[in-house]
User: Fold these one by one.
Assistant:
Number 1:
Amino acid sequence: MEQIVSSGIIDSYFKKIKESLSVDVAIVGGGPSGLVAAYYLAKKGLKVAMFERKLAPGGGMWGGAMMFNEIVVQKGALQILDEFKIDYTHYEGDYYTLDSVQATSSLIYHAGKAGARIFNCTSVEDVVFHNNKVSGIVLNWAPVHRERLHVDPLVIMAQAVIDGTGHDCDIARILERKNNIQLNTVSGKVQGERSLSVDEAERTTVENTKEIFPGLYVSGMAANGVSGGFRMGPIFGGMLLSGKKVAALITSQINK
Ligand code: 48F
């Protein structure tokens, strides 16, 4: 009995990770924009793997604002809430409130149910750079990074990589720092996030969602960070719409 439990876990985990060594899309970061992207990409039949360094995916959505576990979403993103079967209540004008725990768990559940494979406790430390294109990610256990252990990583190959790492825009920064390349931004570099301006930030999160280098796309707060957009605080419509947009961009690119 004891042996079955252990070997069952080992065999099924190894099967899952082995089948993910080459994917259509690798998503770095399990925040709301990455989860929405994972769902729409998997629903299109693409092979999707998401890598999240924390124990629980969900990023900055669980905690609402100052740990008041409610968030705000505007009218333009309600269709995504409906698709994920998330409840919401009208508050005022175009703004709706919702329970951040129900919302976050629904995004995770539906991304997985659609077929995206989610690997938690894994941290992406670099990209694969072939023929002037991002062609995969370099992966290690998050505790290896936290403990600063000198342990080499493994590699996941991907046709497209999404940097959904939030405010840090980790992957875009690593790509730029290591490869002497120009990103698809005004300066050719990571512009860096600006202070808080809700309306502007919500709009530019979606606008800035794009391919910033062949093979590397940005979504959510990473999109704003890379292109010098503002932060927006605990309103999430832009994040959800950004996830949907990046999925559509990648789907049409891969279908070409
Ligand atoms: O920041 P995050 O929630 O991403 P997002 O989709 O959403 C932003 C909002 O939550 C909020 C906001 C809107 O009001 O401003 O901040 O842009 O989630 C990013 C996830 O990426 C993980 C990190 O732990 C978090 O869960 N992450 C960051 N770097 C890495 C990573 C990495 N190198 N490897 C793996 N995961």
Number 2:
Amino acid sequence: MFNLILFGPPGSGKGTQSEKLIEKYGLKHLSTGDLLRSEIANQTALGLEAKKIMDKGHLVPDEVVIGMISSAMEQHPNAKGFLFDGFPRTASQAEALDKLLALNNEEIAVMLALEVGEEELVKRLMKRGETSGRSDDTNESVIRARIVEYLQKTTAVADYYHTFDKVKLIKGEGTIDEIFSALCKEIDEKL
Ligand code: B4P
């Protein structure tokens, strides 16, 4: 199995690049953002609770997202590998993911971390908000709150994987194809 984490702040292009990567490498895409938005669309109890938190730009509790990822992994026992997008976002989520993978003698091969400046992130998300219908993309103060959450809680995840020498930094500004090539180069070196 080849398991990789696509990491970066909100709007750094994780979702955009994930679509291209899963097509090229045949990995199973697991995006906690997509899983949460599907719960919201289906108006489940979990989704209704999560929406209130996401609309403030905050992170959904660890136990909720870990539970979602665990059951999504169980549903794909024959996957060639997983691409984790937007997960883990806290150090606890990272530890839980390592434990889940270890149950099957698996591990994370690499974390690819997209680096994008704050003003570019805000610009991209405001632009996406014009068409996406995502309530967390329409308000600049919510977008900035998401970036603060990232700086306060999520950057610790990169520190965690740094200790295992698994982090590769990728310039996340430029054309989508340029960034995709840089990501593929790192993956091909690990395969
Ligand atoms: P997510 O759904 O993970 O998404 P995101 O961080 O908003 O964006 P992403 O980086 O995927 O950006 P995209 O490619 O779309 O999170 C949403 C919320 O869910 C979180 O705030 C949180 O509340 C909750 N959540 C999710 N996972 C969680 C977890 N593990 N724990 C707790 N809470 C969790 O790109 C953005 C825009 O930029 C797009 O419009 C795209 O077209 C554009 N773009 C992409 N690449 C570009 C490029 N190279 N140049 C110009 N524009 C580009």
